[in-house]
Amino acid sequence: MTLTQWMPFIVLMPLILSGVSALLPGKTAPWLLAFATATASTILAALVWLGLGPEPMRYAFGNWAPPMGIEYRVDHANALVALIVSGIASLALLWGKRSADQEIPERQGIFYALFLLALAGLLGITLTGDAFNVFVFLEISSLSTYALVAYGQDRRGLLAAFRYLIMGTIGATFILIGIGFLYMMTGTLNMADLAERIPAVADTNAVRAGFAFIIVGLGLKLALLPLHLWLPNAYAFAPNVITVFLAGTATKVALYVMLRFIYTIFGGDYSFGALPLADIMMVLAVAGMVVGSWVAMFEPNLKRMMAYSSVAQVGYLVLGVALVSIIGLTATFVHLFNHALMKAGLFMALGTVMYRTGSARIEAFYGVGRQMPWTMTAFALLGLSLIGVPATAGFVSKWYLIWGALDAGQVWLVVLILITSLMAVVYIWRVIEAAWFQAPRDQQSPVAEAPKALLIPLWLMVALNIYFGLDTRLSLGAAEQAAQVLLGGF
Question: Which residues pair with 80 in a beta bridge?
Fold first, then answer.
């Protein structure tokens, strides 16, 4: 079999083996199957990414040629996102075994089956070249994610999952309506075919309405302010391994799909020339950066604090798109890569402390730095990456965003990026101060350092954040390739 023929198994492996996981007894066997499956998808995604040439890699299902048949169409943009999603899933599972055993004492076979379904859905969204298949895989990932958020012992997760379901259903409905408008006007669902047919009907109200519905629906999935209300509680009350997984993957996939519709299907000239999308995205990006950072500075629940930080980071991602330049889009992709690493790592660190203390409240972190020095040192280093300190992955992202803003002549954006980075210093310092400089509460029992099963994956994330801050050839090179693929002749 050629690499092209192996490519669909990136999605098929977790999709098929999720059913096997649901039948497995105990805790170790389902986890081992899930971890092996995610790792296999990561290796295959890496091979596909490395094997790409100038032309996309295409696979037609059932030998039905597109546009009539469904195809996977993989280029440097979605290959990078698929590698991020599968890689973060593998790292989350590697870290999450001990955490899940504590939080989910039973029915782990079903839990890991849902995890694999969510992974398959996100990978399917990324690789498919069919617009309706985007919706189908979106529903697969969303429905399984709703259940995963509610799977923990914290009953507040049920309400968070219900709110997520309501908001997610609205977003999916908007996307489906938008795709329906495009099909009504073009008679096709294949993305490449849509790109050829839309220019002839671009001036119609139906296409404009379809564009608006799709962007709003994806903005909700992306948690772009003010469509972010589902995210804080979903992250805060989900089991820790699910928070790590979602923080590193879900919003990244939504952003990729938005970029694919903007550049590949509608075209940059239409999206940013005929329509005022750049101005709208700029306003929402700036609002997200400021509001997300501001709320994070005062949030006492540290998982919610990191969730609002993610709202701010989504603002950075969208800001790069709003600059409408090769530098800005490169900044978006490199931050998409780096933020997946830093935020998944930060939630690992919080989850590791919670493994010992049982709480995400900042009061539970008082004095923990002296009792869990390895864990809190990892948090501090990952926090430096989030802030954008030199020699960390986050610095590369901020540097390219600043470069893109200067290239666009928007000096005020540089000031705003620096101000919001200083706001990140405030909420990261709150945790460090509580852990290292506050005395434990009288009723607080002493805790021991976390087990190596949690520390080793956590410090692997620290190492990756430092490595990609020092050697940018892989991350930045992949981001530049992805940006060039999407921009095309625009």
Answer: none
Question: What's 449's DSSP letter?
Answer: P
* DSSP for 296-337, written as a single string: HTT-SBHHHHHHHHHHHHHHHHHHHHHT-SHHHHHHHHHHHH
Identify the three-state secondary structure at position 71: strand
Calpha distance 358→428 (Å, rounded): 20
What is the pLDDT at residue 489?
47
Q: What is the pLDDT of residue 442?
A: 62
Domain coordinates in residue numbering, the chain = 276-490
The pLDDT of residue 368: 85
pLDDT given for residue 443 in this prediction: 67
Q: What is the pLDDT of residue 490?
A: 46
First-to-last alpha carbon distance for the chain, in angstroms, is: 36
Residue 109 is predicted with a pLDDT of 85
- Residue-by-residue DSSP string for 369-436: HHHSHHHHHHHHHHHHHHHT-TTSHHHHHHHHHHHHHHHTT-HHHHHHHHHHHHHHHHHHHHHHHHHH
- State both tokens at 171: 């977003």
Res 485: pLDDT: 87
Alpha carbon distance 163, 160 (integer Å): 5
| 341 contacts 248 by C-beta, under 8 angstroms | yes
Say how many residues make up the chain: 490
Rounded to whole angstroms, the Cα distance separating 37 from 111 reads 15
Instruction: Give CA–CA dist 213/487, Å, rounded.
Output: 22
- Contacts for 412 with CB less than 8 Å, ≥ 6 apart: none
| 172-194 core/surface letters (b: 16 or more CB in 10 A; e: else) | bebbbbbbbbbeebbebbbbbbb
- Residues (pLDDT < 50) of the chain are 489-490
Q: Quote the pLDDT of residue 234.
A: 87
Question: Residue 211 belongs to what H/E stretch?
Answer: helix 205-222
Angle at 245 between CA 292 and CA 132, to 5 degrees: 90
**How many whole angstroms from its chain centre is CA 300?**
24
What count of other Cβ atoms lies within 10 Å of the Cβ of residue 29?
16
pLDDT digits (tens, 9 = 90+) for 259-291: 999 998 888 888 888 888 888 999 999 999 999
